[in-house]
Input
Amino acid sequence: MSRRSPAVQTLAKPADRYKRFRLYMHKYWTLYALLALPITYFIIFKYIPMTYIQIAFKRYSIVQSPWKMPLANNHGWQYFIQAFKTPDFHRALRNTFMLNFLDLVMGFPAPIILALLLNELPFKGFKRVTQTVAYMPHFLSWIIISGLARQLFAPTSGLVNIVIQRIGGQSIPFLNAPAHWVATYVLLGVWQSMGWNTIIYLAAITAINPELYEAADIDGAGRLQKIWYVTLPSIKGTIVVLLILALGNILGGGFDRPYTLGNPLVRNVSEVIPTFVYSWGIKGLQFSLTTAVGLFQSVVGVVFLLGADFLAKRAGERGIV
Output
């Protein structure tokens, strides 16, 4: 049998690759069709708006295209310099880091602990009810939660303070004193997000090989020992990934939570970068300044994300990048 020459084989390879590609697309075209809508969403609402980042380096004009706006002073860095010279930005930057750090310290371990407790419950019915009650607050908006908080924690008419006063105690300014406001802010955040994040850890625990627990029983391990030596090491990868994502958001955060819970009495601790952008950008019409602040916030978040991912990989974990 004659063998084909290398030139014929070279010509045949593109045809073979095209044939394999057609067979692959014929088999999986529905998956790519499903991807079309989210990809279109990201292109229209995420990537195209990125062109307006250049406003941070230009003197904004409502009648001009961002491409035609003149460059700001100091080679385009005028608004970054102005932001770092603004006391309100310093306060917002400090508060954003402080509140997100407290959220991380208090809120990150909470769903892990709750998932471990739910996993140890022997009664499945009670476990399902507890899990449902725990993650229901995730579906409440912060407008609703702040309204409930004001009804419960108001200094004179709040239900909690009424109970405290009737048992002989003094009213606690949960939402009117800076220190108490920070504690209330963090605890409400833990309550709202803890149940939803618990689902992720419970899913990871479900994937653990039952033979590991059987081997631990044979070795005489108790319940706490099985949690420490079997459960936690088995979900360590999930914990690391979620920790990296949380560290990437250390300078982020939403607008609705601090805005709805805040008030003039606690503005010194409730003013964060999103509310600063709202006050100076939307109300004050300083679009270039607040775009520069938002760009700075995003860059710092990416640096934290990549740094946490690098440290995780150096520690032997998989990371996310």
